[in-house]
Amino acid sequence: MCRADRGVVLGLHRSGPDRDLLEHALSLGVRGIDTAYNYQGFTTHRALARTAADLLGDFTLSTKVGYFLSDTGERPVHSLDPARLRAAVERSADDLSRIPDVVFLHNPEVTLSELDPTESYDRLAAACATLSEASRSGLCGAWGIATWDPRPVAAAVEHRVSDIQPHVVLLRAGLSVAAPILSVGESLCRTMGVNTQHRWGMSPFAGSMADPAWGVVDLRAFLASDQDWSTPQAAFRLAYELPSVARIAVGTSNPAHLRELVAATAMRLNSAALVRYRELINEAP
């Protein structure tokens, strides 16, 4: 029996829930699932409950709210409207047939980037207050902010952050994250008082390991001596340091790939190489 590895979270962004994969994840010690209200055409919560209701109690389950069907129903639209967010949290719990452990505010920067600083803070604060109240009332265990680009969020809270204190922050992670995104994400977490143990990463391969770049990049310099790991494994392990996070949400439908990623969490890194890498990307124009 494998030890529970709570550092790996199985993401369901691009694939629907598969019972065999979920059972395989449990056998590897993976105890996290990450999904969202809008995934799979707003059907993923019901599909997850239908496919694996009896397994969900063995996982820490996180989801996200912030995207909704448009009036025409043709495409998702983003909104920070408190009433819509509250309804989505309630609907999520109903569709999942269990209370989510974490509900994230999904990509608030989509709306914030269109607003002036004062309005962006007010809108963000109201949305966060809605999720905070949902947590206090028992609709979710904790709440957080999931952001692909933290810069609009950081700008909104730059001078007034006291009442925006999420339990968890979910950020892009890995070698593909540009220096400004990396730096602002870490700064935002410090500003909101979110320590490393409550920081999560996502998209460690920038969407897909099928990108040809992963086939030619040499990551051996980042590894401690006398180790033999594949490029995907090294890239995944590095994602825990760029930025420093406690968990990584990663999507895969391949059991062998998932096993490799779980194994990679034991990899030892060359800390000096990591420091030098950060210096180099910060110096780049």
List its salient traits:
single chain, 285 residues, alpha/beta, TIM Barrel, eight-stranded parallel beta barrel, two-stranded antiparallel ribbon, 12 helices, 10 strands, 17% strand
Describe this entry's structure for a reader:
- The chain is an alpha/beta fold and about 280 residues long.
- Helices cover about 40% and strands about 15% of the residues.
- The protein has an eight-stranded parallel barrel with strand order 1-2-3-6-7-8-9-10, surrounded by four helices. It has a two-stranded antiparallel sheet with strand order 4-5.
- The protein starts with a strand and ends with a helix.
- It contains twelve helices and ten strands.
- It is globular and about 55 Å long.
- The protein has a single domain, classed as TIM Barrel, CATH 3.20.20.100.
Largest sheet: 8 strands, parallel, barrel
Overall average residue pLDDT: 91
- Overall strand count: 10
**Unreliably modeled segments:** none
SSE arrangement, N to C: EHEHHEEEHEHHEHEHEHHEHH
Number of helices: 12
CATH architecture: Alpha-Beta Barrel
Across the major sheet, the strand order is: 1-2-3-6-7-8-9-10
Number of structurally distinct domains: 1
The amount of helix comes to 40-55%
- Classify the beta-strand content into a percent band: 15-25%
- General form: globular
